[in-house]
Amino acid sequence: MKGKLEPAERQKLIEEGKNLKDRLVSVEEDLLKLTDKLQQEAQRIPNMSHPDVPVGGEDCFVLRKMVGSPRVYHFPIKDHLQLGKDLDLMDFDTAAEVSGSKFYYLKNAAVLLEMALVNWTISQLMRRGFTPLTTPEIVRSSIVEKCGFQPRGENTQVYSIEGSDQCLIGTAEIPVGGIHMDSILAETSLPLKYVALSHCFRTEAGAAGTATRGLYRVHQFTKVEMFILCRPEESESYHEELIGIEEDLFSSLGFHFKTLDMASGDLGAPAYRKFDVEAWMPGLGRFGEISSASNCTDYQSRRLGIRYRPEAMSTNPKKGKGNLPPPEFVHALNATACAVPRMIVCLLENYQEEDGSVVIPEPLRPFMGGLEVIRPKSR
């Protein structure tokens, strides 16, 4: 164009330049769509699984431990729905009118019981070196995705907020994972142990039937979650620590439960290995899941960009700038310390008495204002 050109030739090149610019805009738009589609497909690839994980569907788990035995009742037992009605502890009917199905009001002593479970659990975890947190309950969709959850799938369990890039959290694991996003931690700061209190929101798509009635499966609930960031070589030992904590907590409350090593087909995308705890719920007549503990290795930390800087004296042969070892990805673990509704199911059904009352387990009594027994109100 800088040379001597005929006007017609110059105009031809100008038009060609405009066409290239328009085509570039179109190509860039197509590239963004393709990149987004590729990212969505890539996120469907799950973590690797531990060599000892049982291979198969949800029924192929391996029993790790059985604790306690079922209580023997010499009277007709009730489920937690009937106990809740008789003791005026919960209201599903009004909640259905106000919010929809699978919502509930807790009332009277059940409110104290929720707070007692939360406070007792957090106090137990603080004694074990966990830092307490309350978290945001709305997070960006990108954080949900980086933690391994799919907010845009057809059967997603995530509530997305229309007209925004935000979601309601299904577990505190998501906002806690975001605390150290895009950061390099000092090796001396590891492990980082958090115990987080939050409300959790889940669509429970496809969840219906008598097995999920009452408080067992709901759209909103209070949960206390454990979360650990550690060096890769330590994650398996911390996984054992987390399941050990859960077992100690549930044993303290006198539950009859079993610990399961979950099969490959029942692992969520982030989990390298997952242990579930199922407690006996006599009113429902079955074991029901009350917690899980997952080792996610570096599946989440790679997406969130959470790394640590090994000590300068590390034996790592690779060296970065200034002769410092290059940063490495941490391993992330999470475990349920207390999912309140299912804990209430266990407590009401296992501690019911013939006169319709419910005894409060001793560890919770200091957090119940001295209340030892929930009794039917006198008519």
Which helices and strands appear, and what pairs or packs with what?
Elements lengths: L6 H36 L19 E6 L12 H7 L3 E2 H7 L6 E2 L2 H19 L3 E4 L3 E3 H6 L19 E3 L4 H6 L4 E4 L5 E10 L18 E11 L4 H18 L4 E5 L11 E9 L4 E10 L3 H6 L1 E4 L18 E2 L1 E9 H11 L7 E2 L13 E2 L5
Parallel strand pairs: 4-8, 7-13
Antiparallel strand pairs: 1-10, 2-3, 5-6, 8-9, 9-15, 10-11, 11-12, 12-15, 13-14, 16-17
Helix pairs in contact: 4-9
Structure keywords:
379 residues, three-stranded mixed beta sheet
Tell me what the structure shows.
Helix 4 (109-127) packs across helix 9. It is elongated, with a radius of gyration of 26 Å. A hairpin with a 4-residue loop joins strand 11 and strand 12. It has helices spanning 7-42, 80-86, 92-98, 109-127, 141-146, 173-178, 235-252, 299-304, 340-350, and strands at 62-67, 90-91, 105-106, 131-134, 138-140, 166-168, 183-186, 192-201, 220-230, 257-261, 273-281, 286-295, 306-309, 328-329, 331-339, 358-359, 373-374. The longest helix is centred in the first third of the chain and has 36 residues, at 7-42. It is of the alpha+beta class. The mean pLDDT is 92.
- Overall mean confidence score, pLDDT: 92
Q: Which strand order does the major sheet show?
A: 1-10-11-12-15-9-8-4
The percent range for helix content is 25-40%
Backbone shape: elongated
Radius of gyration: 26 Å
Ranges where pLDDT stays below 50 over 5 or more residues in a row are none
In a few lines, what is going on in this structure?
By secondary structure, the protein is of the alpha+beta class. Helix content is 31%, strand content 23%.
